Amino acid sequence: MKISYYPGCTLKNNAKNFEDSALCSLKTLGVEVEELHRWNCCGTVFSLATDDLIHHVAPIRNLIRVKEAKNDSVMTLCAMCYNTLKRANERVKSDPESLQKINDFMYREDITYKADVKVLHLLEILKNDISFKKISEKISKPLNNLKVASYYGCMLVRPEGIGFDDIENPVILDELMQILGASPVDFPYKVECCGAYQTVDKPEIIVERTHAIVDSARNNGADIIIVSCPLCAFNLDHRQKETLKKYPEFKHIPVLYFTQALAIALGCPKESLRFDLHYVDPKPILKEKGLIS
Amino acid sequence: MRINISRKNIKNSFVEKIIEISGQNLLHCYQCGKCSAGCPAVSEMDILPNQIIRFAQLGLKEELLKSKSIWICASCMTCNARCPKGINIAEVIEAIRLILLRKREDHVQIEKLSDDEKTEVPPIALVSNFRKFTS
């Protein structure tokens, strides 16, 4: 199978570690991926207003690109892209009048969108299409003795019907980590917001959230935290710098994308892990556990 | 705080606008407080989420438009997920923000952000921040 892939803005720079590790993992699993031609920014947040159709144009335009690639589904990695594309798609699916207006606005596109593209997250593809069983057969370096706290955040799980797991107690990342040989650590902050885009103009809020979330993961015994969103990754990893300034007793803990853990277990080369993009260096703990050289 | 409750306020155009933009029935709320109990941002808020709904029911325009809370909410959707009456509280808060943003009353002045503030964060942070906080 050949999957259409929508990267989104941050996967091409700050979250290159997310993209490279995901693509290497999929290649190792024998899945062919093709990046969408001429994709554009999804807008990052779904417009919550009833009358704000213009902000649904960008996500829907990307779904036209999927049809141009002669595909009926699209894979996302970033939790915010996933949420925005999927919600915009559901909105036009349930509201033919909105769909008509958005199509009229994009009259220069060759394809009229019929709300017939399926928006998928890589985690769904790993679980439902590739299957965790097949992944377990391809593991060359099980993540033994590594205690992992999976942080789901908001956009992967809420609202109900958009996320693909329980909204209060999601487990899909923990299931994946278990398949990879790691020991999942449960912690009460796994679906609690990291503060998201407040990081631009109110970083002091993020310091409080990062302090609470990271400390809770550590207190429950985690060696690392796993995420699926580049904004969560920035807040929980890079904002540890400001967190330490405010709370001198705070202890750093590395934050990895779930795809980096997957790539390590599947034996991907270290170039695909891009640890140079992290603030808290994951190499010492991974070396200590014998997972990287 | 002393509040004058009047039929005029309850049916004012500000309340109508909130209902129109959010698509929510404000009168469904019976003030159980579950939204505020689960909100991760209450420690930074001046008016709690359940109070935002009550203020909107009563048409307290100035109090809501001046509140810090509407710019603290990051639409994490926890309140929506937990409301026993199915009210989308995040949509109501978005509507109040939009009433200001649609009059070009931006919360973030992009030109006032320093180069450091702009370059240290990833593009996903800038795009979402400007989508939520500027017109």
Brief overview:
Chain A contains twelve helices and eight strands.
How would you portray this structure in words?
The complex is a heterodimer of chains A (293) and B (135). By secondary structure, chain A is an alpha/beta fold. Chain A has 2 domains: 120 residues, Glutathione S-transferase Yfyf (Class Pi), Chain A, domain 2 (Up-down Bundle), CATH 1.20.1050; 156 residues, Rossmann fold (3-Layer(aba) Sandwich), CATH 3.40.50.11810. In chain A, 44% of the residues lie in helices and 11% in strands. Chain A is built from 12 helices and 8 strands. Chain A has a 4-stranded parallel sheet, with helices on both faces. In chain A, helix 6 links the parallel strand 5 and strand 6. In chain A, helix 2 crosses helix 3 and helix 8 packs across helix 10. Chain A is globular and about 55 Å long. Chain B has 135 residues and is mainly α. Chain B has 2 domains: 97 residues, Orthogonal Bundle (Fumarate Reductase Iron-sulfur Protein, Chain B, domain 2), CATH 1.10.1060.10; 28 residues, no CATH class. Chain B contains 10 helices and no strands. The longest helix of chain B is centred in the C-terminal third of the chain and has 13 residues. At the A-B interface, helix 7, helix 8 and helix 9 of A face helix 2, helix 7, helix 8, helix 9 and helix 10 of B.
